[in-house]
Design goal:
GO molecular function: DNA binding; sigma factor activity
Protein name: RNA polymerase sigma factor
Order of helices and strands: HHHHHHHHH
Mean pLDDT: 79
CATH topology of the largest domain: Rna Polymerase Sigma Factor, Chain: A
Shape: elongated
CATH class of the largest domain: Mainly Alpha
Keywords: DNA-binding, Sigma factor, Transcription, Transcription regulation
Low-confidence stretches: 1-14, 203-209
Pfam families: Sigma70_r2, Sigma70_r4_2
Radius of gyration: 19 Å
Family: Belongs to the sigma-70 factor family. ECF subfamily.
Distance between the termini: 38 Å
CATH superfamily of the largest domain: RNA polymerase sigma factor, region 2, helix turn helix motif
Number of domains: 2
């Protein structure tokens, strides 16, 4: 799915934000660790939109994404002393948001991870994207229509920049299962795009008659 990565469909805004204001963030985080609520409000203003988008890509619905974001920031506030500056604050916060989103899916019985065991994916079974128009908006639409298990793995890998080892840890699955879920997700994305393009061609043919 390197084509999607070349289109820059994951993590760009947040990474740019981190690069441009890392020192300010460090000062804010240190202030938060002393209980400075104004400093935490500033962090909220910096990250709320990005974290909302992370949540939305997993839970699909805006009202649920808003709830997830609020709950994640509350958890971050009380866990701020656990942040040790070994990673960026955005990466640390994103994991809290992802876990909060997964908790919501599980609570509402919307989690449907397709357990497929330790199936390995060979190079020969890689998806052929020849002739497929990989428009970013269309790929996003395809991912939104995936079952929650496929959608979550695809979102974490493509949009949030997690490796399969990290995804496996977050979802409590094996690395091979994460890779297999992603492989199946890519196949469904391809099928969705092909069906979409076929529908457009048929609609165009009708109008030309």
């Amino acid at each position: 799915m390197q084509l999607l990565q070349n289109l820059g469909v994951f993590g760009i805004d947040l990474k740019r934000l981190e690069a441009n204001s890392i020192h300010i963030h460090k000062d804010l985080i240190i202030s938060c660790k002393t209980g400075d609520q104004k400093a935490f409000k500033q962090l909220y203003m910096l990250y709320a939109k990005s974290m909302f988008n992370v949540a939305l890509r997993i839970v699909k619905y805006k009202d649920e994404a808003e709830d997830v974001t609020q709950e994640a920031f509350i958890k971050a506030y009380y866990k701020i002393n656990q942040f040790d500056f070994q990673a960026t604050f955005g990466a640390w916060l994103k994991k809290i948001v992802v876990n909060q989103a997964l908790d919501l899916l599980r609570r509402e019985s919307k989690w449907d991870m397709d357990q497929i065991g330790e199936e390995s994916i060979s190079e020969e079974s890689e998806i052929d994207w020849e002739g497929i128009d990989l428009q970013v908006d269309l790929v996003k639409k395809a991912i939104r229509n995936l079952p929650s298990g496929f959608r979550t793995v695809a979102t974490l890998y493509l949009f949030e920049g997690f490796e399969h080892k990290e995804i496996a840890e977050i979802l409590s699955i094996s690395v091979n299962t994460s890779k297999s879920q992603f492989h199946r997700a890519k196949k469904r994305i391809k099928d969705f795009i092909q069906d979409y393009e076929k529908g457009n061609r048929q609609t165009g043919a009708i109008y030309q008659q």
